[in-house]
Write a structure and sequence with these properties.
Blueprint lengths: L5 E2 L14 H15 L1 E2 L1 H8 L3 H13 L3 E3 L14 E3 L5 E7 L3 E7 L5 E8 L5 H24 L2 E8 L7 H4 L3 H4 L7 H6 L6 E5 H12 L8 E6 L3 E7 L2 E2 L14 E3 L2 E2 H4 L2 H10 L20 H21 L6 E6 L3 H17 L9 E4 L6 H14 L7 E2 L3
Parallel strand pairs: 5-8, 8-9, 10-15, 15-16
Antiparallel strand pairs: 1-17, 2-4, 3-4, 5-6, 6-7, 10-11, 11-12, 13-14
Helix pairs in contact: 1-3, 2-3, 8-13, 11-12
């Protein structure tokens, strides 16, 4: 697959009043409200350094465009009441497609990241034609359900895809020729020909990390390493509250980290490892991939898998922390919430037991997005590309 990437330059910390900067200042205001929830004009002026007149003009235009909405006036002790402004959830919508090794998921979200609609399809192995048919059919259903006016609010389609998917043929348990079809497929281009809006592509682990950054409960953290436990473990890197994709968009390829003796993290902390163990025992592992399952029927295999995964995750956290002094390490994934909590607690215990002089290990936290993180992170791509600021987001688009 050919991948050319567009890197968005770092935004100024404060706004600029010069003519020609209006579009950037609009993004600045929208991004500030995305982070803070709602703010009055006075607060926006102080935080951005823009003049009160500039802020007023931009806010009026964004409100007229349907991107902002007014809150109830707040009366202070003196002066006129302030009117808080916030993002209009229906001001912009976006689509996100997650391509997994076992299923595909398409979500439609609003400006605040709330999932409006979701479509899923389970398969043994992902095939390009099947994915295109799934997206086309799902989009037709959304058009029929919401109508042309609402569908016109869609900023674009983001796709979360494992890069070099064909390299995992053996790990997935497929013949090489089945997965090698992906070598000659440009999925972004194929999907872009179906729609009038832009289509963006990002590594699936980075997308999951982007969902936590954009919509999760830990947006106050500045620097963290993020592990997403899916079919294969992957993840992402956040530095200075920005997603760091790396030069090729594949930063946070945590599954490839060495665990010594020829093993990688992917061998110990991937759900597909548990699937193989269940198959060996004659169990049907299909429930592992069904959202809402609790894995209660998979004991004691699940407990043994958690113990092994926690030890390896602790080693990976230590290795990553020797390179970057992370504030936190976050564990999320396509896991039942109960399993995620148990795995996080087990990893905390393993990290605490490590004795590594000269290294201060980060706090280990449980992620907050969960099962839908990859699709949600993919859906955030068009919103950032069109409306918001992210200094380190690497995308593939038209």
């Amino acid at each position: 697959m050919q991948k050319s990437r567009e890197r968005y330059s770092a935004p100024p910390v404060r706004g600029a009043n010069q003519s020609g900067m209006r579009a950037q200042n609009e993004r600045l205001l929208l991004s500030l409200l995305h982070q803070r929830g709602s703010l009055a004009k006075r607060d926006i002026t102080q935080l951005t350094g823009l003049s009160a007149q500039t802020v007023s003009v931009i806010m009026r235009q964004l409100e007229a465009d349907g991107l902002l909405m007014r809150g109830e006036p707040v009366r202070g002790s003196v002066g006129q009441p302030s009117v808080p402004m916030s993002l209009n959830p229906d001001g912009a919508w976006s689509l996100g497609l997650k391509v997994g090794r076992r299923n595909a998921e398409l979500v439609l979200i609003d400006f605040l990241g709330k999932v409006i609609a979701k479509r899923t399809r389970v398969f043994c192995l992902p095939q390009p034609n099947e994915l295109s048919d799934f997206v086309e059919q799902s989009f037709s259903e959304l058009e029929a359900a919401y109508g042309a006016e609402k569908i016109s609010r869609i900023a674009g389609l983001g796709v979360a895809l494992p890069f070099a998917l064909w390299e995992w043929s053996e790990a997935i348990g497929s013949a090489d020729e089945v997965m090698h079809v992906w070598r000659d497929v440009d999925l972004r281009q194929d999907l872009a020909e179906m729609f009038d809006f832009p289509v963006y592509l990002q590594n699936d682990g980075t997308s999951a990390c982007g969902a936590e950054l954009a919509f999760g409960h830990h947006r106050h953290l500045r620097d963290y390493v993020y592990f997403y436990i899916g079919s294969f473990v992957g993840g992402g890197i956040v530095i200075n509250q920005c997603l760091y994709p790396g030069r090729s968009g594949n930063a946070g390829a945590l599954g490839s980290m060495s665990m010594g003796t020829g093993r990688q993290l992917v061998n110990d902390a991937s759900i597909i490892t548990l699937e193989r163990q269940l198959i060996k025992r004659g169990c049907n592992p299909q429930t592992l991939w069904v959202e809402g399952s609790d894995w209660a029927d998979f004991e004691p295999d699940a407990s043994a898998w958690i113990d092994t995964a926690a030890r390896s995750l602790a080693s990976a956290i230590a290795a990553a922390s020797a390179v970057i002094d992370f504030e936190a390490a976050m564990i999320d994934g396509a896991l039942p919430q109960r399993v995620r909590s148990i795995l996080t607690a087990a990893t905390v215990k393993e990290v605490t037991a490590l004795k590594l002089p000269g290294l201060e290990l980060p706090e280990v936290l449980e992620g907050s997005v969960g099962q839908g993180a990859k699709a949600l992170g993919a859906a955030s791509l068009p919103l950032y590309a069109k409306y918001l600021i992210d200094s380190n987001r690497a995308l593939t688009n038209a």
